[in-house]
Design brief:
11 helices; DNA-binding; disordered N terminus; transcription; single chain; Arc Repressor Mutant, subunit A; mainly alpha; elongated; HTH-type_TetR-like_transc_reg; Tetracycline Repressor, domain 2; DNA-binding transcription factor activity
């Protein structure tokens, strides 16, 4: 019986049909393996899985997010502090951030409150434990040593206070000015009594308190910028030398 040979067009159609059937069969086999759990471990390991942040108490999460926001702020500036940047820094998703704070504005207000509270609390604590007006030289030297310690221990908080005032929103500048004035007034009251007990010199304590505060802030910047060059011993010695040349009656 002679063989029957299909025309070229027919052979092409048949080949396409066979390929289509093979593709369908392959897809069906793959679907069956997935449905009935027959996927190999190698294949499963190649499937990306979304990472979820571990559940933590809301207060702990808020502190984590404030820390992340502060890192972004100090590193990138106010204009780059976004929910996306904060979530990436904290290693969480955006919904986690929104679950802790209603948005960027309340988060930044909370960060401002925390930063002001920390800076003011640390400054007042070190001034209180550095001595009193009965020995104004020892008080100022102790305060110089103390401010260097707190800046080194909490660099992000103090970098936000000492560096970022120029490009900050108005509310931040107002808070920084408010904090500085509270500290200056405390220093001024100590200088007023201490210089009299010291026996001079006869300097305006209001003006002198501004000079002391500016010096302390500059020492803080130096210890953040060039700690090997301007170490604690050098800065404390500088304050000691300044006080040593001030005359007494």
């Amino acid at each position: 019986m002679p063989s029957i040979r299909l025309p070229l067009r027919g052979r092409l159609l048949l080949q396409r049909r066979r390929k289509l059937l093979q593709a369908r069969r392959f897809a069906w086999d793959a679907a069956s393996r997935i449905a009935f759990g027959n996927v190999s471990r190698d294949t499963a390991s190649q499937t990306p899985r979304r990472k979820y942040a571990a559940r933590v108490p809301v207060d702990e999460r808020r502190e984590q997010l404030l820390d992340a926001a502060l890192h972004v702020l100090v590193r990138d500036g106010y204009e780059n502090v976004t929910i996306e940047a904060i979530s990436q820094e904290a290693g969480v998703t955006r919904p986690v951030v929104y679950g802790a704070y209603d948005g960027l504005e309340p988060l930044l207000h909370a960060l401002l409150d925390r930063t002001q509270g920390r800076a003011l609390g640390q400054a007042m604590q070190l001034l209180n434990r550095s001595g009193d007006a009965t020995d104004i030289d020892a008080w100022l030297i102790g305060a110089t040593s103390g401010i260097i310690d707190v800046v080194q221990d909490d660099p992000d908080t103090w970098a936000a206070v000492l560096y970022l005032n120029a490009g900050a929103p108005a509310i931040v500048r107002e808070r920084v000015a408010e904090t500085r004035e509270l500290i200056r007034q405390y220093v001024c009251s100590g200088l007023e009594a201490g210089m009299a007990l010291r026996g001079g010199p006869d300097l305006d304590p209001q003006i002198l308190s501004h000079l002391v505060l500016v010096t302390a802030e500059e020492f803080g910047r130096l210890i953040l910028e060039e700690p090997p060059r301007y170490d604690k011993e050098r800065l404390v010695q500088a304050m000691t030398n300044i006080l040593r040349v001030l005359p007494k009656d």
